[in-house]
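Whiteboard transcription, Tuesday session. T.W. wrote the structure tokens on the left side:
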């Protein structure tokens, strides 16, 4: 081994030092979803990075998705996935499958990975955190559409999360809400759930880990990655169509969170090893940051 390699590692630690100093004691909310969750080895690496944040004195919170695993479970049950206005139509039968996949498979799996790396984590059902109401959407023709037990967050209950933080335990939260009128579970888009919780907590960073590098001038060309935008510039990119498709609700929720007091939002590619650490603790970053 050459001397250069250990020296480079030491330089990387020194580069991270001011960020570690600045963020010690701060709260980061990490939303993990998309195909970044399909490769178990990639997920393990992300959970190891979460343990790094915990050891460094940062308070991480995870809100996870599970769309593809849910689609697979629904298919096995003979239920066809149907999307209206970008949201999964969720019948009474389907919500039980959604709840089972999130609460019995994905959530405890993430908790176990964190523990295997020496971290402390606890799974919290989203119904114990998020309060919701059924979402009203329109179909492609602009007519009101019934999408079943799909909701939007109207409030957050922070008791379990606060207890976890005081005990220095990472909360891992599923994207489900308790319906205000009935207490029954509602399926919540994980991006919107994460943004709602970030707003409530006014976290230092809201990090979206997904399967895209970030915002791009040309979605088909990663070399056109936009490294940093503020809220005004993001509005311009929405207006001229640069931000389109599935990125629109992500950016809208990000700007909503920034308007509520969140300090910075990051969009990064969770398929890249250590993407979160590279984005947060290096001078150059690898994704897109949205600032106030």
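and on the right, the sequence the group agreed on:
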């Amino acid at each position: 081994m050459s001397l250069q390699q250990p020296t480079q590692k030491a330089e990387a630690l020194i580069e991270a030092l001011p960020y570690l100093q600045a963020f010690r004691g701060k709260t980061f909310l990490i939303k993990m979803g998309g195909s970044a969750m399909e490769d178990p080895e990639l997920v393990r690496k992300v959970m190891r990075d979460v343990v790094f944040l915990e050891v460094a004195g940062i308070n991480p919170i995870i809100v996870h998705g599970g769309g593809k695993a849910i689609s697979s479970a629904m298919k096995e049950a003979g239920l066809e996935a149907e999307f209206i206005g970008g949201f999964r139509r969720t019948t009474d039968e389907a919500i039980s499958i959604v709840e089972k996949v999130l609460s019995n498979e994905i959530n405890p799996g993430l908790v176990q990975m964190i523990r295997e790396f020496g971290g402390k984590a606890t799974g919290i059902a989203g119904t114990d955190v998020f309060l919701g109401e059924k979402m009203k959407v329109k179909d492609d023709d602009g007519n009101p559409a019934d999408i079943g037990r799909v909701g939007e967050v109207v409030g957050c209950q922070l008791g379990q999360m606060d207890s976890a933080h005081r005990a220095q335990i990472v909360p891992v939260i599923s994207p489900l809400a308790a319906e205000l009128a009935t207490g029954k579970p509602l399926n919540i888009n994980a991006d919107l759930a994460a943004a709602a919780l970030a707003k409530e907590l006014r976290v230092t960073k809201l990090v979206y880990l997904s399967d895209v590098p970030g915002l791009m001038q040309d979605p088909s060309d990663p070399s056109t990655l936009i490294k940093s935008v503020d809220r005004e510039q993001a509005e311009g990119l929405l207006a001229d169509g640069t931000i389109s498709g599935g990125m629109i609700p992500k950016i809208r929720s990000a700007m909503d969170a920034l308007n509520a007091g969140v300090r910075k939002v990051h969009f990064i590619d969770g398929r890249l090893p250590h993407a979160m650490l590279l984005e947060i603790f290096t001078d150059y970053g690898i994704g897109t940051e949205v600032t106030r």
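Someone added at the bottom: The first strand starts at residue 27 and ends at 32.
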